[in-house]
Design brief:
- Helix content is 16%, strand content 45%.
- With 171 residues, it is an alpha+beta fold.
- The chain has two domains: 32 residues; 132 residues, Immunoglobulin-like (Sandwich), CATH 2.60.40.
- Strands 3, 4, 7, 9 and 10 form a five-stranded antiparallel β-sheet that branches. The protein has a three-stranded antiparallel β-sheet with strand order 1-2-8, with no helix packed on it.
- β1 and β2 form a beta hairpin.
């Protein structure tokens, strides 16, 4: 038995260092983060009392790497001298049982967070009232985590909503 390392031992050690460096670099670069994309649409209609009704729809498309447990989704609409924030509802898993036979039996107040698996897509919407003469900036943040992940991941989107009055042609 010899005390020194053989060429095979040195080669295995070098391969181990290269593989560890490869995965370490990928980890630092975010290759193991869950990939997801956001897209959104707005629809604005004239309302009452100098306010417009603004409907915001956000579509989340989960990429092919890992599933994600959604923890929250916040929408903020801001204009020149104000703003309003609300949450997108429906990010919870509904406790539907095999015995559920009709829509009346579905408990719509889920408690557990919703999981998005790779390749799935979901759309959530909300409604806010905004001043009728102002351009609105809509910011969305979705946050969640991957299993065995110690931190939260977040995805953001931004939309613009023009006043209804600027969309109508002048007489």
């Amino acid at each position: 038995m010899t005390n020194g390392m053989t060429i095979l031992d040195w080669t295995q050690f070098a391969v181990l260092i290269v593989v560890a460096a490869f995965f370490g670099i990928r980890f630092v670069q975010g290759w193991f983060n869950p990939n997801m994309s956001l897209s959104g649409e707005t629809e604005r209609r004239a309302g009452e009392d100098n306010c417009d009704d603004l409907a915001i729809s956000i579509t989340i498309t989960k990429g092919g790497i890992g599933s994600i447990t959604l923890k929250g989704a916040v929408v903020r609409a801001t204009w020149l001298d104000g703003g309003v924030a609300t949450e997108l509802s429906g990010l919870t898993r509904l406790p539907i049982k095999k015995s559920t036979k009709s829509a009346d039996e579905i408990p719509w107040d889920g408690k557990k967070p919703l999981n998005l698996s790779p390749g799935t897509s979901s759309t959530w919407s909300c409604h806010v009232k905004v001043p009728d003469e102002h351009v609105c900036t809509i910011q969305v943040v979705i946050y969640g985590r991957q299993k065995l992940d110690f931190g939260f991941s977040q995805w953001r989107a931004s939309l613009i909503s023009l006043p209804v009055s600027t969309l109508r042609p002048s007489p």
